[in-house]
Amino acid sequence: MTILVTGGAGYIGSHMVHELADAGEPVVVLDNLSTGFRFLIPTSVPFVAGGTGDRPLVGEVIAHHRVSAIIHFAASIVVPESIADPSRPIFLGEIYISLETARFQARTARRPYGREVAHLTIHGLLHLLGEDHPTPAARRRMAALEASLLTSLRARVAALTPEVV
Ligand SMILES: NC(=O)c1ccc[n+]([C@@H]2O[C@H](COP(=O)([O-])OP(=O)(O)OC[C@H]3O[C@@H](n4cnc5c(N)ncnc54)[C@H](O)[C@@H]3O)[C@@H](O)[C@H]2O)c1
User: Fold this and answer.
1) 53, 34 in Cβ contact below 8 A?
2) Which ligand 1 atom minimizes the distance to the CA of 79?
3) Which end of the chain has fewer beta carbons closer than 10 Å to its terminal beta carbon, N or C?
């Protein structure tokens, strides 16, 4: 029953790691050290160097450390980089969202643009967590997970991104 902190060597993530370790919670950190520092993590906390997009590695970390919860801080904080060119995907710790796809889906399905951005984000997050849709049954399972997460997160997404919802 370990908590995996992605981006745990970063500014926010390392504070979380210290809080959890001080509270006696088993923790493991996954970080590619692109902007983080190994020395920010207590030496008692297991550290795995690698990216959140490395599915086999993430799966191995989850299985080996018996991870029961994930706190995800692995991301780029440089907002201008993400919004400077709207045709480029937004980087969210190896979740890439195509705003053009979101716009296209919103237009063709006549759904709000912000909903499609949220949908694609959750879709990417589920992939990151190991979900996939190679078969119709898996596609239905993923769609159900997305719908359930969207329902519970919609209010928060609306509060965070009122300009696109
Ligand atoms: N710093 C703030 O004031 C602040 C405030 C609110 C929210 N946030 C959010 O918290 C999150 C972390 O911000 P931060 O300030 O700690 O940034 P940070 O750059 O200090 O930390 C990000 C960490 O993630 C790691 N990382 C990046 N991509 C990775 C990947 N693909 N795989 C594994 N590790 C990866 C980096 O090496 C780094 O250690 C961001 O989503 C940010 O938007 C930050």
Assistant:
1) no
2) 43
3) N
88 has a pLDDT exceeding 70: no
Task: Give the closest residue to 147 by CA, choosing from 164, 111, 122.
Answer: 122
37-41, 59-63, 88-92, 132-136: which has the minimum mean pLDDT?
88-92
Residue 92 CA to ligand 1 centre (angstroms): 9
**9 CB within 6 A, ligand 1:** yes
As a whole number of angstroms, the distance between CA 50 and CA 115 comes to 31
Which candidate, 59, 65, 164, places its Cα nearest to that of 119? 164
Q: Is the CB of 34 under 6 A from ligand 1?
A: yes
pLDDT value of position 156 = 62
- Cβ of 161 less than 6 Å from ligand 1: no
